[in-house]
């Protein structure tokens, strides 16, 4: 288990590994797990460590207390305004660090599941949109509400507009209204909505299902998934044909095909 950042005597981010699954829990419930400087640093450190951890096949990200994540820490941001430049350098650095952390999630070899409850607002909603998969407890609300305080959620917009239809994203961004977990599932922001009492169980079940697949195949597939989305159709087919050809050369893929033909479980090594 990698070292976590500390807030007083309490780890602001907890990591517990069970088999091939890493469970990350944002642990600042009194601040609704806001993406403070400390939280961003802790998340980045763990993501960097997970990138090199070949024993982990799936990551589950959750939040302690009554909310998943309420976005950036507004009190901390207000303090940043006290600099001579009015906070310009601090704000630029803050949003750059946040963007790096978000991109680290998608560049991670392992799929990341957001286990959401309570609220996920602004950069917290961005975090859900950034994760590869998301499960929401009934009653969870999602929003990009910065416009309500005069701050348009421009960076959360990047992930949100790549998850849900354009007009629905723009409506959320300009009205500042929340949407329900059920609406989030309809739009594609989350994969499914489950009773709050079974949220953890459902997240673990999905993580275990993914962890049971050939890790090398999931790794190459996740990278290809995000790469091909940015390409024109012809280029995407050319690129993914090369990816599949590489995948076919894996000894464990040969074993998986043989096991399917022979109607037995595969004996994978990766």
Mean pLDDT: 94
What does the overall shape look like? globular
| Total helical elements | 11
Number of folding domains? 2
- CATH superfamily membership of the largest domain: 2-enoyl-CoA Hydratase, Chain A, domain 1
User: Unreliable stretches, pLDDT < 50, 5 or more residues?
Assistant: 1-8
In spatial order, strands of the major sheet run 3-4-5-6-8-11
Terminal CA distance reads 21 Å
Please tally the β strands and state the result.
11
Sheet bearing the most strands, described? 6 strands, mixed
- Whole-angstrom Rg: 20 Å
CATH topology of the largest domain: 2-enoyl-CoA Hydratase, Chain A, domain 1
Tell me about this structure.
This protein starts with 5 loop residues before the first strand and ends in a 9-residue tail after the last helix. The protein has helices at 37-51, 74-80, 88-107, 123-130, 154-160, 166-175, 181-187, 199-211, 215-229, 233-248, 251-261, and strands spanning 6-7, 10-11, 13-18, 21-26, 58-63, 112-116, 119-121, 133-137, 141-143, 179-180, 192-194. It is 48% helix and 16% strand. The chain has a 6-stranded mixed β-sheet, with helices on both faces. It has a 3-stranded mixed β-sheet with strand order 7-9-10. It folds into 2 domains: 6-211, 2-enoyl-CoA Hydratase, Chain A, domain 1, CATH 3.90.226; 215-261, Lyase 2-enoyl-coa Hydratase, Chain  A, domain 2 (Orthogonal Bundle), CATH 1.10.12.10. The longest helix has 20 residues, at 88-107. The protein is built from 11 helices and 11 strands. It is globular, with a radius of gyration of 20 Å. Residues 1-8 have low confidence and may be disordered. The protein has 270 residues and is of the alpha/beta class. A hairpin with a 2-residue loop joins strand 1 and strand 2. Helix 1 packs parallel to helix 3 and helix 4 runs parallel beside helix 5 (154-160).
